[in-house]
Specification:
- The chain has 510 residues and is mainly beta.
- The protein has 2 domains: 308 residues, 5 Propeller (Tachylectin-2, Chain A), CATH 2.115.10.20; 136 residues, Exo-inulinase, domain 1 (Jelly Rolls, Sandwich), CATH 2.60.120.560.
- The protein is 6% helix and 45% strand.
- Strands 23, 24, 25, 26, 27, 28, 29, 30, 31, 32 and 33 form an 11-stranded antiparallel beta sheet that branches. Strands 13, 14, 15, 16, 17, 18, 19, 21 and 22 form a 9-stranded mixed beta sheet that branches.
- The chain contains 3 helices and 33 strands.
- The protein is globular.
- The structure holds beta-D-fructofuranose.
- Beta-D-fructofuranose binds next to strand 1, strand 5, strand 9 and strand 13.
Length: 510
């Protein structure tokens, strides 16, 4: 017995040693240099340990705050905290101390944050209004007893611009009358009714509340019990207006993440286009629409109070099917690039578009390279491992791959007549850590096509984000090549106007 404990200890020690070797840290701060295998180089990932959903996305006083579901003790999910990072440009992030810790009411699950500029909550002063975070308390002890009232809603406030947080002493602000899954409050200010609106999900539906002061909430309406996809529990709602191109009318977009039940297995986010009058959300939409058809864009929500009115979205770049097993250490998971959302009605259908924020180009290494083409049956050396590729195609069938010299490949296929795009990551490197991860191809229907199809691929060491036709169609996928991909091989069909921009890393030195 003693002997086996000793062996276990030795094993743990050698693992820790391996981790240390992999992990180069900054001498002054002790934080990672972000040079470990598979470490995202221009996407946000925590310094170490487990992360899931983005939370509390709020812009205030020149700063974009990114809070996130965080377990600071391990690289698998555990008692949830809110981790915190800030950015001035949505690209470079600075880590901040953990903002919210579990307490006697439970773990701190997902939620949102607002700037209460008129101090409606009274939690700040007229001269120094507070930031207010709204989150779900998940009580694991109550859950164990089998009761269904273990998720309630709480608030916390900051009067120093998000540096430090106090929990409201009257928590919870919304109790639970026995709804098993009752969580993920998204709060925003509704101009027309001059009220705070809160969205909550309750298993298979959305519930809408309003409030004058962020503390006392009135139930207004619900949506969705018999609408949209219901292959899993509804999570992480969001609701916002967008102007439709080209008509200019305003429509509201409701985001609902579901897990499982995504179009390519596991977690995914669906959307509904409709109207919101301050009381109820209504939609005529009959079909199921997905924000992103890749396997790795979940729990995405948008910023409150952006300075330019842009609707900026960040998603968690993973999937509950295998999130806890991805081959990375000492951290797990990254966020998608921040994406600007817009809404278009090209034919008889609304399409939610997403594109990386414009200033991604500030990270470009230089002016880039243009290859007019046509390029077919060729290996193009990208000359770098972090890149933004753009090209167009008129081919009926196009197959291309990101490849490296280890024979690893991430394969992309576009079939014009089938109106379909496929990604196959089964040979993309380390893909066998989980059966469901390798189970590809993943497919995306493309109901609206133009004669020329514009393809954009933004690739970091362990992710690729695909944007087609100006962001009408998106796929986000993790991949774990042992050596980053740095070549593009066009295998079937041809491409034109290839533009290659190499991207600088955002962490530490060059
Ligand atoms: C979504 C989710 C949320 C919940 C959080 C817990 O990924 O399940 O519904 O609040 O993660 O970490």
């Amino acid at each position: 017995m003693r002997y086996s404990i000793l062996c276990l200890l030795l094993l743990l020690l050698s693992c820790a040693e391996e981790q240390k070797q992999d992990r180069q840290t900054d001498e002054e701060t002790g934080t990672s240099m972000y040079k470990e295998s598979h470490r995202p180089q221009f996407h946000f990932s925590p310094d170490e340990n487990w992360m899931n959903d983005p939370n509390g996305l709020v812009y205030h006083d020149g700063v974009y705050h990114l809070f996130y579901q965080y377990y600071p003790e391990d690289i698998v999910w555990g008692p949830m905290h809110w981790g915190h990072a800030v950015s001035k440009d949505l690209l470079h992030w600075e880590h901040k101390p953990v903002s919210l810790y579990p307490d006697e009411l439970g773990y701190i699950f997902s939620g949102s944050a607002v700037y209460d500029k008129d101090n409606t909550s009274g939690l700040g002063t007229a001269d120094n209004p507070p930031l207010v975070a709204v989150f779900t308390y998940h009580d694991p002890e109550k859950e164990k007893t089998g009761s269904n009232d273990h998720q309630t809603q709480g608030i916390a406030y900051s009067v120093d611009g998000g540096e430090s947080w106090e929990k409201y002493e009257g928590n919870p602000v919304i109790g639970n009358e026995g709804i098993r899954d009752f969580r993920d409050p998204k709060v925003f200010w509704h101009d027309e009714t001059e009220k705070w609106i809160m969205l909550l999900v309750a298993g298979d539906r959305l519930m809408i509340y309003n409030s004058d002061d962020l503390i006392s909430w009135n139930f207004l309406s619900e949506f969705g019990k018999d609408r949209g996809a219901h292959g899993g529990v509804w999570e992480c709602p969001d609701l916002f207006p967008l102007k439709v191109e080209p008509s200019g009318e305003t429509k509201w977009v409701l985001l609902i993440s579901i897990n499982p039940g995504g179009p390519n297995g596991g977690s995914a986010t669906q959307y509904f286009v409709g109207d919101f009058d301050g009381t109820a959300f209504t939609s005529e939409q009959q079909d199921i629409k997905w924000v992103d058809h890749g396997a790795d864009n979940y729990a995405g929500v948008t910023y409150n109070h952006t300075p330019d009115g842009k609707r900026i979205f960040i998603g968690w770049m993973s999937n509950w099917n295998y999130a806890q097993k991805t081959p990375t250490q000492p951290w797990r998971s990254a966020m998608t690039l921040p994406r600007e959302l817009s809404l278009e009605r090209p034919a008889d259908t609304y399409l939610l578009k997403g594109n990386p924020v414009d200033n991604l180009s500030d990270l470009y290494k230089d002016d880039g390279r243009n290859i007019p083409g046509p390029v077919s049956d060729t290996l193009v050396n990208i000359n770098g491992a972090l890149f933004d590729l753009r090209f167009s195609t008129t081919s009926d069938h196009l197959r291309f791959a990101l490849v490296n010299d280890q024979n690893e490949r991430m394969v992309f296929e576009f079939d014009r007549s089938r109106k379909e795009f496929l990604i196959d990551r089964s040979q993309s490197g380390n893909a066998d850590f989980d059966e469901q991860f390798a189970q590809t191809p993943h497919s995306m229907p493309m109901p609206v096509l133009q004669d020329t199809t514009e393809i954009r691929l933004v690739s970091d060491w362990s992710s690729v984000e695909l944007f087609i036709d100006g962001g009408r169609f998106m796929m986000t996928e993790q991949m774990f090549p042992n050596v980053p991909f740095s070549d593009l091989r066009v295998e079937s069909g041809e491409i034109h106007d290839l533009r290659i921009n190499l991207i600088n890393r955002i962490w530490g030195d060059e």
